[in-house]
Amino acid sequence: MATIELRDLVKSFGGSNVVDEISLQIEAGEFLTLLGPSGCGKTTTLRMIAGFEQPTSGQIFLAGEPVAGVPAYRRNVNTVFQNYALFPHLTVGGNIEFGLKRQRVPQPARARRVADAVDMVQLAGLEDRLPTELSGGQQQRVALARALVNRPKVLLLDEPLGALDLKLRRAMQLELKALQRSVGITFIYVTHDQEEAMTMSDRVAVMKSGKLLQVGSVQDIYDRPTSRFVAGFIGEINFLTGVEVARSGHKAEISVAGVGTFTGYAREASPNGAPVTLAVRPERIRLSRESVGDNAVPVTIRNVVFRGSDLVLEATLANGGSMVAHHSRDQASSLPQPAIGESMFFTWRTDGSTILVE
User: Whole-model pTM?
Assistant: First the structure.
């Protein structure tokens, strides 16, 4: 049984659907991320699960039970917010203990659970400090401990790392995923940061304008996007637009005006004559002085950028379009050394690109 199930969930404000008929099942122990740009409805969805907002229509189930009308404090979920919402007058221990006191957990049990939670988030020795005496990362750990000490079935996290600097945020991403694995409860995480989603998630649900566009593993979302928006939102990617001219199973061939004919993986057939887009990730492309392999497009090298771990090649196509290729340092050492203005080929395998129908 799914820990959380959303059925045809709708939330309207001022006559507009900010969440538009979302259906989704989230399994026990899963780390699922709602990913999308600002205003796509992901936080509103999280707030409805938490009980802070009521759906306009549709249903929410927690452990198989409908929660319509059940107030937030009676749902076995806890929420961690971006601003942490710590009580400034309470110590670290007092903040963590607060929910247990409201539940009237006996003092000896409270003390044990608080101590366990402090150890879990690596804050031992800081129990008597106030929030103002902590760093941003430490405050975030207190907020997590306060939520986890209540032993919820589901932990909801609304961009909890957004206030941290880049280095600390990346470190906390790994800590948060490790913590989720150790406690084994369901995490539902909201972010607009694709790197966060890819670092931590078991599955990602991509949203746009209140709609759920695609749900899948990080690898599936990255390698096999189902729409141009999803492909472009997650990671860097090249697009070539043309028309489908041949198909064999999931292999399709498209013709791109002024550039050539290419093959890629296609989930679905395109309507006759409708434009399609071939999407290929920069790291899938190889540089060559010859037209070899499944796909090869003639390019003129426009720029070569060394970024430490990889080499970025920017190129212009015959029709005026552009493409980008990324090579790791090891790959770059075995490939031709391009000069700016040189005519070469970008090549890639059929299974390294996806054809999108839009």
Answer: 0.88
